[in-house]
Design a protein that fits this description.
about 120 residues; alpha+beta; Jelly Rolls; 4-stranded antiparallel β-sheet; 1 helix; 8 strands; about 15% helix
């Protein structure tokens, strides 16, 4: 499957070079992972490229970003989409905090030519 995708990308890149066609656009990709922050503990989330959303599944979390004076309080069954590309800090308040982190790559990113 991956080999077929690489061949398709190489073919599209060749067509782009030969005929002056625009480079292909990467499809939209969403990644998710789960995390737990123990009561009273703090964890830092380095900010990956793309749009990051935290979905609080259980507990309460206090969220802040480096250099940003705003604070966000997130309760169970609430979500927060970060609008600041700096490192995010999550602190579990009264109980352990369970959350999902969703990262969506920016749609419309042009694929890079592997030859360069």
């Amino acid at each position: 499957m991956i080999a077929a995708m690489q061949i398709a990308h190489q073919s599209a890149t060749l067509m782009s070079r030969l005929f002056g066609m625009p480079m292909p656009v990467r499809s939209h990709v969403t990644r998710r992972f789960s995390a737990t922050v123990r009561k009273g503990a703090t964890t830092a989330i380095p900010f990956p490229p793309g749009r990051v959303t935290l979905h609080c599944r259980k507990g309460e979390a206090w969220i802040t970003h480096d250099g940003d004076p705003r604070d966000v309080l997130l309760h169970a069954d609430e979500s927060y989409t970060a609008d600041n590309p700096r490192r995010m800090t999550v602190h579990a308040l009264k109980t352990d905090c369970f959350f999902d982190v969703q990262v969506e790559d920016a749609a419309g990113v042009v694929l890079q030519d592997p030859a360069h």
